[in-house]
Specification:
globular, about 15% strand, Alpha-Beta Plaits, about 30% helix, single chain, 12 helices, alpha+beta, 3 domains, Sulfite Reductase Hemoprotein, domain 1, 3-stranded antiparallel β-sheet, 5-stranded mixed β-sheet
Amino acid sequence: GRYCDLPEEFPHVQSFHTYRINQPSAWFYTTKVLRHLCDIWEKHGSGLTNMHGSTGDIVFLGSSTEALEPCFAELSSKKDDMPSFDLGGSGSNMRTPSCCVGPARCEWACYDTLDACYNITQTFQDELHRPFFPYKYKFKFAGCPNDCVASIARSDCSVIGVWKDDIQINQQRVKEYEKNGTDINAEVCGLCPTKCMAWDGKKLDIDNSNCVKCMHCINLMPKALKPGKERGATILIGSKAPIVGGALLSSVFVPFLEMDPESDYQDLKELTEAIWDLWGEHGKARERTGEFIQRVGLSNFLEEIGLDPVPEMVMHPRTNPYIFFDDEIFEEAAE
């Protein structure tokens, strides 16, 4: 809700409410649907729109209090040739999940982002519409490490597509890239962050055990390289933009998770519910998940949600040689 402090002086904007409308997965619209939305908004509101908000919602800017319910009723009513639209998340709840175009348009998608986004949206309807949490909680689904929805910087749960096996190489196409002017040693191998690639003029070798899935080589030579065949997603937790505290990037919690629609994404849902239970019980007001993890400590957080620590959760080996062990470690050893 938005209200003006001087309603007598500015009667036309004494209330200027905002709607967040739940967008279709990956923002696919027909022009007919867009015209339908614009007609509703011109009828009930100011006509100003934001396509789209940072969470992904369609944003309608500027409505009077009297028009709130009629506008929602018209948006949510289903017509023969037009879909109905629900409101998106707002406040201290699960915000509207969003995703990249995934397999609908992109050859690099490692899982079906559109299905996962829709499934999570439908599963957690209560959490989407009722303020259960200490603060907002965002899902973003990216089909590959290019992360076209910027999930690693803007969502509490980033689901980023990744592959588990080796990068697929077409050696003949690699030679064609070199023939057409690509300096493979300088532009591909030389810019690999872990230097796991080697080119001898005839064959491109990749040490896949050291590959960090940065997508640089695939982006540069898309006809020669593509993600492996064993595909899934990495689950990262805890990113946020700088509002109360500073900006955070997501951290790896599950290095690889199969994103099979037939499993109904149960593993992702169980992890999410475990995080919500702990954060909802002990989180402070306006404290995002990443800030909560920083406050209680990663080891305590993992122990409470029942997740085993793995090396991928650590950015680099510790620089402090002093380790304070819990007493229970010595008690278990004595037993």
